[in-house]
Specification:
It is a single chain. By secondary structure, the protein is mostly beta strands. It has one domain: VTC, catalytic tunnel domain (mRNA Triphosphatase Cet1, Chain A). The protein is built from four helices and ten strands; from the N terminus they run βββαβββαββββαα.
């Protein structure tokens, strides 16, 4: 389990990221910038969204994710949140399944294969359907080799329309995410104190539903 701190930014303040005190001298860039695409799954009552809005301490999000335009190499992902700690369960797909409505179905042959049973154990529901597509450009940083920092910008949301086409909604916000193991808490806190940023709750899934008129979320 790891800690996650999110810092939403108005795009007018993006330039401050490069002037973070002592930041440039202590970071590495473990990956090149890349486009991230996710499709979030939920039931017809948007239970996972409601759990997040209600602040339930033990909750989950379900999605598939792929990088750049490599949809055939997508991953199943379940994000598990327990109080202030979180973890991600991932499963790489090696199938040509393209019916998005069936990906989180109990009838999905791939999920029922013996080597993938561990993933099924983390599912609370088999009635999940694609509810929102999110795409954004992510930059990766590593602070003193221990604290992960990502910077997500150009965030775009789309509601499914038979998933043959999407109506694009552009977010005017970007977000910094700081991720670290509990033993590196003091290091992350020192990094945060050296900045002018204020941590706040930020969920791309809820933001997209809000901007689409589905959820009340700021």
């Amino acid at each position: 389990m790891r800690n996650e701190i999110k810092i939403p930014l108005n795009k007018d303040f993006n330039s401050y990221f490069d002037h973070w005190k002592d930041f440039q001298n202590k970071i590495s860039r473990p990956y090149k910038d890349r486009l991230i695409n996710s499709i979030y799954y939920d039931d017809e009552n948007f239970t996972t969204a409601q759990n997040n809005l209600s602040g339930i301490s033990n909750r989950r999000k379900y999605r598939i994710r792929w990088y750049d335009n490599k949809f055939k190499d997508f991953f199943y992902e379940i994000k598990i949140k327990k109080n202030n700690l979180g973890k991600k369960i991932s499963l790489k797909v090696n199938q040509s399944e393209t019916n998005l409505n069936n990906l989180y179905s109990f009838n999905n042959y791939f999920l029922n294969q013996k080597e993938n049973k561990f993933f099924l154990e983390h599912l609370d529901s088999f009635d999940l359907k694609p509810q929102l597509k999110v795409s954004y450009l992510r930059s990766y940083f590593l602070y003193e080799g221990k604290v992960r920092i990502t910077f997500d910008q150009d965030i775009n949301y789309s509601l499914p329309n038979g998933f043959s086409k999407f109506n694009n909604i552009k977010d005017l916000m970007s977000v910094i995410e700081i991720k670290f193991l509990p033993e590196n808490y003091n290091l992350a806190l020192r990094l945060l104190k050296d900045s002018n940023f204020v941590p706040k709750r930020f969920s791309k899934y809820l933001r997209g539903l809000y901007l689409s008129g589905i959820a009340n979320y700021l």
